[in-house]
Amino acid sequence: MNVQDHDKKPWLTPLEQIAHLRSKGVRFDLISETEACSYLAENNNYFRIRSYRTNFEKVAEGTRRGQYANLDFKMLVDLSIVDMLLRNELLPMSLDIEHFSKVRLLRAIEARSEDGYDIVADFLNSQDRQNRDGSVTNTTKREIERGRKSAYTANLLNKYPEHDYPAWVFMEVVAFGTFLSFYKFSSERFGSKTLRDEFYLLQSVKSIRNACAHNNCILNNMTNGTSMFNAQPAVTQALGDIGVSLSQRRSKLRIDIFQQIATTFFMHQKLSSSGIKEHRTESLLKFEKRMNKHSDYYKDNYQVTSGFSFISQLIHGWYDCAAREETQGQPEFADSENRQPDEG
After folding, report:
1. How far does CA 73 lie from the centroid of its chain?
2. How much is the average pLDDT of 40-68?
3. pLDDT given for residue 3 in this prediction
4. d(CA 181, CA 193)
5. Element (H, E) at 324
6. Which end of the chain is more exposed for a tag (fewer CB within 10 A), N or C?
């Protein structure tokens, strides 16, 4: 038998999925099995919904050893909805950051009296890679060439057949990852520690942006862990400035998802215009209200409650306070929560 055959999972019908969850200790008290079956058939897939189970502890001993100690199917549904809504906040925030970081870099290029063309030409030349057969490959130029078939960039690119782009055009026709490489190149060219530090911060934003764009689950593992990289000092300091305790900073910034979320909030409030931040505040406060709608579900689950608390501190520390200052004397923001298709 092929070794890979051992890893293959059988296809389960919604009824079989429910039976499997129940065998693992998942309850159906807050939602009936009939409703859960309908949800799995029409609103979500089993693989995604069950991934949130990692946020719940298992029984250590006794007859229920290995089963989940306090997990109802409705909790998995709720976390899935909160996760979706969080992605819906983080993706436009990351797009805001991308826009304003481009503005920021253009200002830096102008301040160095660059003409905008030479720096792009030098960057593109730095991307040349020699193959074993002696030929040269430039993945950045190949990336740009693919844009000539796009309805959104073809007309612009066709004005520059020899890759002789000014910086303000180049930034609009490359992917965010390529733009960040250009950001780092510029920081080294200018000897700018500020731009270099921002490059590393923007790398975290890129990670959360890609996760949201690909609709990856974010909150399906809020347990303690070790992050791939240390949080940037500017983020750690800024979290302290808005009242996040040292213990929370240490625990949450060790987890990649929370470190990247915190960095995205930090960069958004640092780079965005006041109008953008005001608009984002309304949306974030709506999200927070929905996030905490069923907080009673998790009153005995530290990982979930502390994760939600951390996100709330980011919202109130960087957005709600600014909104109160700007709208002092104005009517309080009225929530009109939209019912999501998979809310159940």
Report:
1. 25
2. 89
3. 52
4. 15
5. helix 321-326
6. N
